[in-house]
Amino acid sequence: MKISFAPPFIDDDVKNEVISALESGWITTGPKVKALEDATAKYAGIENVLCVNSATSALMLVLHWLGIGDGDEVIVPAYTYCATALAVMHVGATPVMVDIREDFNIDPAKVKAAITSKTKAIIPVDFAGWPCDYIALNEVVNDEQIKSAFKPKGTIQEQLGRIAIVADAAHSFGASYNNKRTGSLADITVFSFHAVKNLTTAEGGAICITMPAPFNNADIYKTLRLWSLNGQTKDAFTKSQAGGWRYDIVYPGFKINMPDVCAAIGLAQIRKYDESIWKERQRVFDFFDKSFSSKSWAQIPPYKKEGNTCSYHLYPLRINNFTEQQRDQVIEKITEAGVAVNVHFIPLPLLSIFKQREYQMDNYPVAYNNFAREISLPIYPQLNNNMCEYIVSTVIKAVEEVGV
Ligand SMILES: *Cc1c(COP(=O)(O)O)cnc(C)c1O
Q: Mean pLDDT across the chain, nearest whole number?
């Protein structure tokens, strides 16, 4: 049996929505993007969402809007996809990496210890779709001592008066924390709609704008939208209407808007997200949990807690007491049996560009230990019970052959 890792969820409703964009006479940013923004906002229980062309550019736009740049520091987990840290570097700031907890998410105590007078933001990452400890993170940024040591640069930072929390929720669309959906848990939250993510637009990202009072989030939406379209006062759709030709450029903006033809995919998916996409992922997750829980060598992901739900983006299985080499051998055997698996993530300090900048893996022991023992299994709605059975038996056989 051949099982791929993360194929996109494409059914007739997705195809019909894309065809409707193609046949409408308008394929880039327009009514479908607006509809996806509204549906995303409604889903997250918030008011203002801006769609752009990726989560990476969403993070860059948000950091830039917050006035973060040269000489500033932004705290990120050492255990994430490179984009979290690259977005920080692209605005000229320095990513400061901290270690994670056993659940793969950023450790708020380590965040607190890493804060300096240059710290302007924290980017927690909801690994595998399990929300970070936002209560603890909020306590850190609101700590009186930390707040009074905060050195704001520019009017936005002055108005906020503390370190900002910008959530990287690339994995966690549909998850909740304390009975609140992701998208509503930080100052600003970024979703990824990349092809392998739970909800996709092929490439895409969404910015959930939930800055605290006295910020006006509808105004921030307008500003960010303008900055995502070259700083042009009229978007192409408005200009395409009769009499709409004259425009001005009022800010040196980026060009990172989402096309309607892409938004169409996400729009069809979000309508059935809870009933089919999320629920079917949960089915696969529970199947794996049940199958591995009897194995003494298996550490199943700790993603069940009253009031919290996972988006089930990944199934990060860890093998107790395994070395990185043993884990790699297991992956080889699983691959030979036709099952595509992955490792999430190679910790940032092990990647060349960060090594060159002298980040050292030794400083992040929990991240290394999780990485060395981790295998991400396929998890998506199209996996039937037969396929899940095959994945489980393949993994068990491979682990037991390598030896536990
Ligand atoms: C996928 C991913 C991103 C980047 O998303 P893009 O939409 O591809 O830019 C950022 N952070 C994490 C944790 C991711 O997994």
A: 97
H helix runs in 233-344, sequence order: 236-240, 260-271, 279-292, 324-336
- On whether the CB atoms of residues 121 and 95 are closer than 8 A, the answer is no
Report CA(196)–ligand 1 centroid distance (Å). Answer: 10
Measured between alpha carbons, how far is 329 from 334 in angstroms, rounded to an integer?
A: 9
> Do 312 and 129 contact (CB within 8 A), yes or no?
yes
Using CA of residue 293, residue 364, residue 351, residue 93, what is the dihedral sign?
positive
CA distance 84 to 79: 10
Other CB atoms within a 10 A radius of the CB of residue 308 amount to 15
Q: Is 64 left (phi over 0), alpha (psi -120 to 50) or beta?
A: alpha
* Interval between CA 85 and ligand 1 midpoint (Å): 11
pLDDT computed for residue 221 by the predictor: 98
Pocket test for ligand 1, best of 5, 51, 54, 56 (most atoms within 8 A of CB): 56
Q: Six-digit token pair at 86?
A: 């690259």
Tens-digit pLDDT profile for residues 361-376: 999 999 999 999 999 9
Residue 67: is its pLDDT beyond 80?
yes
Ligand 1 binding pocket includes 194 (Cβ within 6 Å): yes
CA of 172 to the centre of ligand 1 (A): 11
Compute the distance between CA of residue 205 and CA of residue 57 in angstroms, rounded to an integer: 8
Return the closest-CA partner of residue 120 out of 171, 177, 184, 187: 187
d(CA 301, CA 130): 10
Domains and CATH numbers, the chain: 12-270 (3.40.640.10), 273-402 (3.90.1150.10)
Atom of ligand 1 nearest to the CA of 125: 13
Q: Name the residue at shortest CA distance from atom 10 of ligand 1.
A: 83
Q: Please give the distance, rounded to the nearest whole angstrom, from the Cα atom of residue 77 to the centre of ligand 1.
A: 14
Q: What is the mean pLDDT of residues 368-387?
A: 98
The closest alpha carbon to 184, from 204, 207, 154, belongs to 207
pLDDT band at 236 (very low <50, low <70, confident <90, very high): confident
